[in-house]
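Good morning C.,

I know you're traveling, so I'll keep this short. The sequence:
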Amino acid sequence: MSKPKEVVIVSAARTPIGKHGGFYNDISAEDLAVLAVKEVIERSKIDLKKIKIDQVVAGMIYIDSLNQQIYLPRNVAHRVALQLNDTDNLKVAPGKTTLRICGTGFQTIADAFDLIMEDEPQKMNCVISFATENMSQTNKIHQGRRKKDSVWDFEDAPVKDYLLEGFNHNLFNTLMPKTADIYGAQVGISRKDCDEFSYLSHVRAKEAQSKQWNRFSNNPKNDYLKGIFTVDTVDHEGNTVNVWKDEGTKYDISIDELSKLRPLLGPKGLVTPGTASQISDGAAAVILMDREFADKNNIQYLAVVKGYQFSTVDPTIMGQGPVPAIKDLLSKLNMKLSDIDLFEVNEAFAAQYLGVEKELGLPREKTNVNGGAIATGHNIAATGLRITTDLIYELKRRNQKRGIASACIGGGQGGAVCIEIV
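The tokens, ready to paste straight into the viewer:
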């Protein structure tokens, strides 16, 4: 009797997350993706002359043709192939771009998982998934349509913010911060709760960076124990800098300072600039393989992807999404909450996270143990891959087995991925 098919993560890596207008201000989303994909291949130690890359799955939300981002997976594959001197494998791998708003990073894993789990002849053995976003470089867009009588002339129209327009959900007359405010209030979350949790996110991120620095000092090229790798760039004064940590974490923040920030919107005032995730830049990548194929080729791997789930909620309380996603995934895998050693739940907003924590009964000591997007940033498309990468390496550091990464998704969705350390 043949073994059931399984999908493994051979390697995973992510850039440090840059803050708006920060270290990655002049580095494109494609450039960041090239760094992540090159790193994940080098970490895997696979021989590209022997192991065929069957597909490259890219994830990005703020895509425009002006910056050639419609060619993202093929451009990244070509550029990395040239850097690794691989002209007959990665360079010719087919590529596609996938999109599920804040769940895009998870969707790149799901797409690869499905491709590998297919039956012959569609089945694939090795897929590279990456996701990238440079929110600092999103543009204003002229909304004018082409005139009926000339393909070259345009109607007069307003110029709109490409980034902020995506935060609105016009069909339901809501905005993403408002959905968190409403959901948090429904579940009984207070402004004080949000300020205190946001402070905790920064405290945990600072503590994690302190540990990370100790490891980085001994191994300046790569911090394998956290999934993050260093990026060389230039600061605003033109100095070369070695970016090794997430840029948005605040070292001098206080609960008192957070409590004085004015609410952004919403009837309960739960969402402020300090209790919302940060606009950020960065990329992450993973290599996934059929487990039997990896074993046959003596390729070591980090974790097994046990499964994934996307579920829906009322779009006006979008932040609730991880609740059904995690419940449905556990049910699908015949597991209980107590079977999970660590959780990563994206902190889109403190009110949203706290609502999820309360509804699910998530143990805070097992969830977002290194801080979350409030302290580190939410580079939207890449977030799912980023937190999955961090989850894998935190489980390894703690010598623990099983984790779930999850996020709420615009439009009233939640996504979740379960991984198990080998």
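Safe travels,
E.
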